[in-house]
Amino acid sequence: MQRERSLHAKYGGVHFIQLRHARDINEFVRDLPADKKNSLFEVLQALQDHGYIEMAHDGRWMDPGAEIHPPQA
Prior knowledge:
single chain, alpha+beta, three-stranded antiparallel β-sheet, two-stranded antiparallel sheet
């Protein structure tokens, strides 16, 4: 089993936990119907719904300069 990895989406800065191997994730996304790939949000939601990732919902995010920001107090 792939060890979990904490990552951020390149566009949108969403913090998520990778639960499956990148190869499996890429295959899943490649096989999604075109109408399910209209936005990054739709792809991330499908990945979460099928157990490939888990959205962290911890308030952490990454800006376009790749700086990770902690939750606001």
